[in-house]
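User: structure tokens for AsmA-like C-terminal region-containing protein, please.
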Amino acid sequence: MQQILLQIKSFLQSEPFKKYAKRFGFFILGLIAILLLACGALSIYFNQNKIEIIAKVNHKINENINGQFHITDFHYKFLTGFPNFTLALSDVELKDNQWNLHKHTLLKAKEIEARLNIWSLLSHEINIHKILINDAVINIYKAENGYSNTNIFKAKKKKTTSKGEKPETTIDEVNLNNVHVIIDNHLGHKLFDFDVASLKSKVDYDDENWQTNLFLKTKINSLAFNTVHGSFAKEKWLEGNFDISYAEKHQKIDIKTQQLKIGDDRFDIVAFFNIGKNNSLFGINIGTDILWRSASNLLSANISSKLNQFDLKKPIKVNCDIKGDLNVEGDPKIVVQADIRNNELTIPDGLFTNCSFKGIFTNNFKPENGFNDPNSAIILKNFKAEYQTIPLTIAQAVINNLEKPIATGIVNADFDISKLNGMTNEKILHFESGHAKANLNFQFDIVDLYINKPRFTGDVDINNATFDYLPKNIHAEKTAVQLSFTEQALYIKKIAYKHKNNIIRIDGKIDNFLNLYYDAPEKMVVNWNIYCPNIDVKQFLGVLKTSPAQKTVQKKTVKKQNINFTNQLKSVIDKCTAIINLKADKITYGSLTATNTQATLQMLDSKLLLKNGTLQTSGGNITFNGAVQPSGNQYIFSSNAQVNQVDIASFLRSFHNFGIQSFSPKNIRGRLTSNANVTGLMSSKGDLIVNSMRGKLDFNVNQGALLNFEPIMKIGKFAFPLRDVENITFSDLSGSLNLRGEQIDVNKLTISSSVLNFDIDGIYSFGRGTNLALTIPLRNSKNDVNLATKAERKAVRERGIVLHLIAYDNEGKIKVKFGKKDKE
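Assistant: Done. Predicted tokens:
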């Protein structure tokens, strides 16, 4: 290496190298001298011919315009652009003839450099090779009547040129630096506004056609195809290279660019613009991989304000096609297509994960309705995602009319219903197990970009569902549901439900369901047919309880949110009317067991009305009407019941002897027939609160007997020692009672028995205050039963000695004494 360096040093110091280096230096100096002399000569030439050159430039410009061209000064730039002749125009203004009307100056530039071809200039011709515009404003204006300040340029007279010859005064190169460009089209309501930091373009001509590769760096102040709706890519920087060509025959400009930078994203764009007087069509196609928010923020405000409510986590492949007419008012046709794969979609109402679909936006959903928001639509195809772990598929969905958006489509779902847990704002339902399938056509409004009043038609099948309905503390097991939603009604084809000891099978119908569900749930009537192999009434009463959430008063206004499905469902359940045709093989109420039960139940505002009820129990039957309604921790009930030939002992045991302490069901037997119209209270467990009952009760016992009834036995020991007072049979046992809570008014209690006859009236109390008057004929009535008619029995009833006794309360115990009640 050292030897090579020594050889190079030796060569540089040799005489031959010094000789040639000296000659080359003189050659370079000569060239510089010639260049300086040439430039000096050009400067001298300009100064000597300045007036003539200015006149020629003015003439060249003025012969091609209809307006005013003003230049404050000309000067020659020494050495700039050599070998061309560089002429600098200072403070240039270009105005059309109608400037006084519209006040839009076509061109106002601090400086314009025009590089003229020297040989043409020496031949006394002006041929501009390059134009540089610095610190300028270009304002292209078109009025509502179609007039444009670009009309300042006169139509070119075509001139025949030989092949390969450039047209006269062609400009081969154009550069712009710090130029504000405004295209203000009042006719089409369009505004394009750019701050051009740099534009560089070299033009190649082919007769009247030309092409160029153009570099552009500019800030987009406005790219508004409809000024009412705002600008595309507002306040974004654009930078890149464009391949641009112009075809004179078609008066069409074609533009193509790849990896064009707009903001932080890159785009491939193909576009065309027709610039003929009778043809101003244009088309722009844009392709990119971009984040949703970045893409949305490039669109006009009327679109981005809606799309910004949504988001996709990963970049998406997007293609945007814009077609329109620059001279036509309104929006161009816009079609945006996006391909989404395994993404995460955020909407105002929630989050979709593992999301894949093809999305299309168009502002020309129905071709005959034009390009506008009411005719805009978002179309989703082959949508697959998980909504809070629930898998959903939608073959196609359409959101149309972006002024009042309506979404329609078909949704399919197949999932374990335990995945529904955690979806609600309020704890209402908790699912333990089960499976659901749904195939539903949906339609819903989008109000402030929130889903509102979804409507569904189609089928839902649920199998083996185990869940808790928390407001009512209901636990259901192995529930099956088949629902069919139609425009006319909701058909409940099958609900099989198990709750504790209750087994319920339901089918039914809700007319006008879709309209009433949201707008008037209080008018909704649910017609149920319920069959119960077995039902426990006390457990069923829990359904009527008012949930705590109903009592909560909202203290402050919260931000409007989407109507949560389960919250809305809960509201409907609370407000709607349910008419239930009930049929039960077996009903239990405490110790009471009834069979072959049928009734019509109506549920309204947590109130249960019972109509036309029949049941068999205790060897007889009962018909009834009634109502049950929650009141705090208790239930208010009312009943109008007819009891026919039930076993009185069994019946009394079923109701815990109605709280009567003076005798028990083992003291009585017979068949009870009664009419009762009573109201009262039941405990939270469904037990009767005896001293709460009020109303009227008439009863009659046939084939009756009183067994070992202590009060009678006490009397019988000294009054009827020879009669069987331990086993008294009745030919008549009837009465009329008024229930007043703790006390009962015994208006008439008639007893015709094998021992004696007696009548009772007065007050019986479940607590303190019993005061009963007993009228007892002492004659032996054992054989009265053999008398043929009631009239004959009545005629002999009070013959002989009649005993009057008072049964009264004495410090909580029943005492008996002689006397009449009205004399007490």
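User: Anything notable?

Assistant: The chain has 13 helices and 37 strands.
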